[in-house]
Every structure is written in structure tokens, then in C-alpha cells.
Specification:
Pfam families: Formyl_trans_N (PF00551). This protein is α/β, with parallel strands linked by helices and about 200 residues long. It has 6 helices and 8 strands, in the order βαβαβαβαβαββαβ.
Length: about 200
């Protein structure tokens, strides 16, 4: 299977995915695409000899349809079987999502269905939760929704800040996302729960 990864930032999840696709793994990376030419993830992909592309959203303004047409063209050129969103900070329209129906995964830094959207760690601390975590799910048109493929949990500790909690969760993201991708690429969609 061929995997395209979409990033906007540092790309630590992207790195964990690329570095997992070795040996008898059923998938290989075919493209890393960013909406942001400055994304740190692009250099990390190039260092791993993975093809990269940039489709900047800014020239398109509010015209999501034209932007996503360019995105789809750039992705289709790499002939991916699976699309992994890994910190891709653009909301995607129903048209784009439906184009990749059943083939697109996302990682979200909360135990969905709790805390869809942004600032998940601050919200978990504010609520006094005892634990937090991350979720990999299939992408459907509703934001941070769609069938859950896996979750990993971490404790919330006394004195945690959004930053300290984010760091603890990110460590688990780097374990969970490759584990789910490997299963998904092999055709397994049964949910896994780590820790
Ligand atoms: C991660 O916390 C991911 O869950 C969220 O955005 C962050 C991306 O980090 N959606 P990175 O670019 O993978 O380092």
C-alpha cells in the first residue's frame, strides 16, 4: 500500500509513521504534502528520501473548493492508497473527505469523543480529568468524528500544564499511529487500545 502523509508543522507523527514503514510492513510512504512551505516536516521527509510537495492554501483565500482541487491533484499524482493526516491544520470539506472515503486516517490528541477541535489538553485539565490520551480515527466529514481505530491513554498528574500533558500524550501518539497504520494497511479495522 502507498501512504501519503499531510502535515502543517514539525511532523513528529509523520516521522514516526515513515520510520515504521520498513521490512515486511504492508505499506510504504509515497508523499509528504504540506500546506506550509516552512513546515519542519518537509525537511525531515526529504532526509528520509520521501517525496514532498507544498500546496499553499493562502493564495486561495476562502476558496476551499479550488484549494482542495489542487490538493487532490497533487495527492493523486502520487497514487496513494491511504492518506494520513498528521497535524494537518486545515479543515477539509465534505467533497475532499468523500474523495478518500475509507482511506483517510487522522490522529487527534484527546480521547474522542471528548474534546474535538483545538486546545484539547487545556480542556482536559480544566475539566479535572484523571486521564488523557490520543485517538486515531477514520476521517468522515464531521470534524474529529468517524470510526475509532485506536486509542492510547496516559494519566494526568498533579501539576500538569497543557505543555507537560501534550508531551506525555505525544509520546503515545508516536506509538499508536504507526500501530494503527500497520493494521489498517493490512486490512484490519478492529479497534486497538494501548495502555
Ligand atoms: C499532534 O499533537 C497531533 O495530535 C495534532 O497536531 C500535533 C502534530 O504534531 N493533531 P507533529 O507535527 O506530528 O509533531
Amino acid at each position: 500500500k502507498r501512504v501519503a502523509i499531510l502535515v502543517s508543522g514539525g511532523g513528529s507523527n509523520m516521522v514516526s509513521l515513515i520510520d515504521s514503514m520498513l521490512g515486511d510492513h504492508p505499506a510504504r510512504p509515497c508523499l509528504v504534502l504540506s500546506n506550509n512551505a516552512d513546515a519542519g516536516g518537509l525537511a525531515k521527509a526529504q532526509a528520509r528520501r520521501v517525496a514532498t510537495a507544498v500546496v499553499d492554501h493562502r493564495p486561495y483565500g476562502e476558496d476551499r473548493v479550488s484549494y482542495e482541487k489542487q490538493l487532490i491533484d497533487a495527492l493523486e499524482a502520487a497514487q496513494p492508497d491511504i492518506i494520513c493526516l498528521a497535524g494537518f491544520m486545515r479543515v477539509l470539506t465534505e467533497h475532499f473527505v468523500n474523495h478518500w472515503q475509507g482511506r483517510m486516517l487522522n490522529i487527534h490528541p484527546s480521547l474522542l469523543p471528548k474534546y474535538r477541535g483545538l486546545n484539547t489538553h487545556a480542556r482536559a485539565l480544566e475539566a479535572g480529568d484523571a486521564e488523557a490520551g490520543c485517538t486515531v480515527h477514520e476521517v468522515t466529514p464531521a470534524l474529529d468524528d468517524g470510526p475509532i481505530l485506536g486509542q492510547a491513554r496516559v494519566p494526568i498528574l498533579a501539576g500538569d500544564t497543557p505543555e507537560s500533558l501534550a508531551k506525555r500524550v505525544l509520546t503515545q501518539e508516536h506509538i499508536l499511529y504507526p500501530a494503527v497504520l500497520q493494521r489498517f494497511a493490512a486490512g484490519v479495522t478492529e479497534r486497538i487500545d494501548l495502555a
